Amino acid sequence: MKRVIGLAVGRGTGPEVAAVFERVLGAFARLYATDIQLVRSPRTYHSYASLKAEGGVQEIGRLTQEDAAHYERFCRTQAESGTRVIFRTAVNAQSLYLVRQRLQAVKVDAMATATAGTEPAREASLLLVRDQAQGFYTGENQHAPGVVRRTMEFSREITEKVLACAVDRAWRQWPGKGPSQVVMAYKFHLLDGALDAWVTELATRYDIPVRLFQPDTVNRNLITHGLADRTVVVAGNEWADIMHVVLLDRFGSDRQENRCTENVHLHPDVRGLVEYQTVHGSADDLEGLDRVNPVATVRAAAAIAERYADCAGAVRATEDVLATLAERDVRTPDLGGRHSTTAVVDALLAALPEALERSRPGPLPGQLAAASRVDRG
C-alpha cells in the first residue's frame, strides 16, 4: 500500500530543510520496505525576508495573498485525495495565518514530563494547544497613507471546536487518565465579555475544570505554583507564540531549534489533515551555507514515518541516535558544534539501522535486516 505524504517548501533554508526531510524519510522507506510517495507543492512560498526583497508594501501584500491562496488550495487538494499529513518548511507568517484561519488550525505540542521548577520540586506534563484559527494574528489588512488597519474576529463556533479538539487530544495523550484541568489563556477582557460567556457555557460539558484567564495571570500562576500534572493549556497566539519557547524550557527541557510540532485542521473540508513543521523559522541568513540545524526536521520525518507509514519504532530509534550524536558532539554551530547539516544527517543515517534493530521488539523482518546490512556496507 502506497503512503502519500505532502511536502510544501518555503524560501530561505526551506530547500535545504526539505532535502533533509526527503533523505531521512527515504531512509525509513528503504529500511522498512515501505512505499512512500511525496507530493510536493509546485510553488516555493515566500519567507518574510524574500518578500521584502520583492518590493514595497503593495507588492508584499499581493504576494502574501497569492502564497496563502495557493497553499490553501494545496492543502484542500491533498485532503480531498486522501492525504493525511503534510510536512511544511517555514514560510511567511502572514500567509500562514490566513490559511490557518480559513482551515481552522490548532497547533499541538506535548511537553515531555520534567521537573517543573517548583518548590518543592514535582513532576508535571503539559499539552499546549495553540488556537491559530481566530484572534489577533488572523485577519486582513487595509492600508491608508501612514496607517494599516487589521480586522480580525473571535467566534463561539471556533472556540467550541478548539476546546473540543484540546480535550479529545488530551485523552489520547494520557489514556486512562485524561486531563486534570484546562487552562485557557486569552486577552478576553478586550471582547466585551463575549469569550468569557462562551467558555463559561462550554465548560459545563466537561467533567474537568475549564478556566479562562488573562495571560499575565497564567504567567503569575506558572511562576508561583507551577501547573498540575496533565494540564491542557489552550491559548491564543498572542500568548502562546511568545511563551512556547519558555514552556519548552520549563517542561520539555528542549530548544525550539530542535522541535517539531503538529498543526491540526478542524475545517470540515480538510478535517483530520495534519501538518508537521519545524518550530524554527526560515533562517534566511543561513541559506546555502549547509549550517541549518536538521534535528527538528529529522524528528518530523521520524514521527511521520511512524504515525503515517507504519514504521513502528522510528521515533524511538531516532531519539536514541540523536542522543548518541549529542554525546559525541556531532551538532551544528547553533548548538555549539562544528558540523555541517549534511555531516549531522550523514552520521544519523549511518547509525539508524542498528538503532532500529534495537528499538523493534522481537526478531527483525528479513527486509529490514537485509537493508541494515546493506546500509552498514
UniProtKB/TrEMBL annotation:
Q: What is this protein called?
A: Isocitrate dehydrogenase
Region annotated Disordered sits at: 358-377
- Write down the Gene3D superfamilies for this protein, in alphabetical order: Isopropylmalate Dehydrogenase (3.40.718.10)
Supply the source organism for this entry.
Answer: Streptomyces subrutilus
Q: Where is the Isopropylmalate dehydrogenase-like domain?
A: 4-348
Q: Which InterPro entries match?
A: IsoPropMal-DH-like_dom
At the top level of its lineage, which domain of life is listed? Answer: Bacteria
